[in-house]
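By convention, the C-alpha cell line describes the chain's fold. To illustrate:
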Amino acid sequence: MAGHTCAPPGIAYDDRHMKRSSATPKEITHERIVETAARAIRRSGYHGTSVADIMKEAGLTHGGFYAHFASREAMLAEAADRAGAEAVDASLRIAAEAPPEQAFQWLAAAYLSDEHLQNPEQGCPIAALGSEMPRQAPEVRRAATRRIKEMIDVFARQSPDWGQPGAHDRALVAVSTMVGALLLARAVDEPKLSEALRGAVLKHVAPAGD
C-alpha cells in the first residue's frame, strides 16, 4: 500500500515476530492448544470459538481437552494471555529492529499496516476482541488487561517524549486512537476508506518528520 500505512520493510505483526518454546510431550500438546486458541479467538471471537473446533484445529481429540484445562474459560484465559504476549513480543522486536529515533513510527506503521489489517488472527487482540471483553469471565478479562497494559507501556517507552510530563497520557491517547482506527478499518467495506482511516491516524500519532 502506498502512503503512510506501509510498515517499514520486513516489519509486521506476523509469525516472524512470534517467539514460542515447548518442553515435555504434555507441555507441547498444551502449547499447541493454547497457540491454536490464541489464533482462533482473534479470528472468530470468543463466542465463535468452541472447544471442539479448537481441538480439531490443533489435531487433537475433543476428549483430551480436560487433561489440560479445568474449563473453557480457563482455556480462553490462557489464549487471551498468549495472544497478548505475542502482540507485545512482536512490538518489542519491531522496536529493537528500528533506529532508536524511529521506533515509535515503526511501531505505529506496523500496527496500521496492510499485513496487520488483513491478519487479525496473528495481530493485536485489543483491536480484534476489545468489544467482546466486557462479557467475558473475570479470569479472561484479567489476563487480557495485563497484556493490554504491557502493550501500552511498550508504545509509551518508544515515544519521543517518554519521561516528560504527560508522556504516558499521550501514549494512552495514541494507542487508543490506533486501536480504534484499526477496528474501523476492518469494519468498513471500502478499501479507500480503510486506507484513509489508517493513514490519517498514522500522520496524527507518528508524523514522519518526528
About this structure: The chain has one domain: 15-205.
